Amino acid sequence: MSVTPEEVRQIARLAELSVDEEHLPELAAQMSRIVDYVAQLAEAGGGGAAGGDHAKPFIPGPDAVKLRPDVVAPQPLEGKVADFAPAFRDGFFLVPKLGAFDTGEETA
Amino acid sequence: MTGLEALTVAKATATRLSKVRRLNALLTPATTVRKALVAQAKAAHPSGVLYGMPVAVKDNICTLEFPTTCGSKLLEGYRSPYEATVITKLKAAGALIAGKANLDEFAMGSSTEHSAFGRVLHPLDRTRVPGGSSGGSAALVAAGAVPAALGSETGGSVRQPAAFCGVVGIKPTYGRVSRYGLVAFGSSLDQVGVLGRSVHDAARVFSVISGRDARDNTCEDRDPLRLPTVPERLEGFVIGIPKEYFPVDLHPGVRRACDRAIRALKDLGAAVRDVSLPHTAYAIPTYYVIAPAEASSNLARFDGVRYGNRAEGVTTLADLYRRTRGAGFGAEVRRRILVGTYVLSSGYYDAYYRKAQQMRALLAQDFRNVFDRGVDLIFTPTTPTTAFKAGERTKDPVAMYLADCFTAPANLTGVPAMSLPIGRVKGLPVGGQFIGQPFLEDDMIEAAYALERAISATEEA
Fold this sequence. Notes:
The structure holds two protein chains of two kinds.
Chain A: H1 5-14, H2 24-38, H3 40-43, H4 81-84, E1 88-89, E2 92-93
Antiparallel strand pairs in A: 1-2
Helix pairs in contact in A: 1-2
Chain B: H1 3-19, H2 30-43, E1 54-58, H3 85-92, E2 96-101, H4 135-142, E3 148-153, H5 159-165, E4 168-171, E5 191-196, H6 199-209, E6 238-242, H7 252-267, E7 271-275, H8 283-298, H9 317-328, H10 331-344, H11 349-372, E8 377-381, H12 397-401, H13 408-413, E9 417-425, E10 428-435, H14 441-460
Parallel strand pairs in B: 1-2, 1-3, 6-7, 6-8
Antiparallel strand pairs in B: 3-5, 4-5, 4-9, 8-10, 9-10
Helix pairs in contact in B: 1-2, 8-10, 8-11
C-alpha cells in the first residue's frame, strides 16, 4: 500500500478532519488505490511529450485579473450574520477558548 | 404568456414536481415549492425572455428563497445571505425558480449516490443512477417536471447526467458564466451549466445566465451569448472525430449511436475528419489530482465557526474544526479532502500536483492543435457506457471516476462542451458530445440544433 494508516492519520490532522481509528485501514486502502492510479502521471510527459517537464501550468479564464476600483463597498447581505452562523454574539463569531488549540493533537 | 398563464404554469409545475417525488430529485418540500412558484409567478416581469419558465436549481447554487445545502449534513438548513448572479439573471428574465435539486455532496460524484439526503433514482429505471453530480437536475428535466434546470460542472457533472437521463446539457467556456454564488469546489474548473429538455430550452437559459459580472473576477468581460438560429444544413462546418474517444472497450451500443450521429452530420453537409487528442488518457488522473487539491483548500471554510452546523460538546477550537468536519462531511468528500491534502503536502507536491498542472497544459495544447488545423467542433460520445446500476461503482472510487473520462478534458482545458441525446440502447439513453472552441458556444449549439432535428426525424420515420 502506498499510503499507510499512519499517513492517513497525519494527513487528516493537516486537513483538520477527525477520522475514526477503525476506518483508518479502509481509508488507507482507498487512498492508495487513488494515489496509485494518479501516479501514472509520473510516467507520462517527461522529456518525450511536447513541453514535458517545462510546460507552463495552464490556468483558464482571463489572461489578467481585472482590478476593481479601490473603494470600500461591502456587499449588502439579505440576511443577518447571526441567522446563519452557528454561534454569534455582539458582532463576534463564538468559538471555544483558544488556549487549548496549539497542541496540534486530537483531544477527544 | 399572460400573467394568468404564468400562474397556471407555476401551479402545474408544482403538481408535476410532487408527482415525481419518488425520484428524490428535489430537496425542497412540495408545499414550499408551490408557495414560492405562485409568489414568483405573480411578481415576475412579463417582458422577460424566460417569462413563466420554471427552472430547478442544483443545491450548490445560492438562493434566498430556499436553503442551500450542497447535499451535505454540514449545511443542512443553511440559508445563504445572498443569491448567485445566475439566479438574479434568471429572475430578471422572468423565470420561476422551481426549488433546489439533489446532488452528490458538494458536487463530488458521478452518480448522485453521495448525497446526505439519499440517492436520486433514474427516471427510466429505478435500479440505476441518473449520473452526477447534477443528477437531481437531470432527473427532474428527464421526468418532464421542468423544461430546464441549472447544474454545475467541475469534471462533467452536467453533461454526464444529461447523457444518462436523455436530456441536453451545456458546459460553458470557463469564464462565460459568473460563478458568484456557486459554492466553490475546484475554482479553476467550476462552471454553472444548464440542463434542458431540448437544445432550444437549454440554450435559452444558457444565453440568459451568460455574460459579464463584476462580482466574479474569473468571469470574462463579454456580452451574453446571442442565440444562433436553427440551421437547415451544416455545410462549412468541419467536425473532428478524435480516435482516443472511441477505444476498443467502448460500449458497443454507444459506438453504434455515435456512428449513426456521425452519418447524420455528414448527411447534413458537415465535413467529418479524424483527429487525435493524444493526452486524453491522462485527463482523469490529472483531474483527480487538481480537483481534490482545490477542494481541500475550498472546503477548509467549513469549520463550524462561520456557517453551517457545528459538532456538539467540543471543548477546544481544534476539536471544533475536526469533529464538525469529520461528522459533517460524507465519505466521498472526506476522501477527496484527504487526497487533496496529500498531493499538496510537502514531498508530494512535485510528484503529483506539479505533474498534473503540466499535463493540463498538454491537454489544452491537444485541443489548440486540432482547432488550429481548421476543425470547428469535435464530436465524441459523452460517456463510455449508459447509466449504470446503483451501488455498482461505490466500492471502487476509481471505477466511479472513469465515468467522467470523456467529459473531464473540457473542464481541465476550459473549452465549452455539450451533450445531447443521440439514441437509446436497451431503453437507456446515449449522449453525444460536441466540444467547441473557447467562447464559440454558438457554433456548438447550431450543430446540436441540426443534429437533434435530424435524429428526431429518423426516430419518427
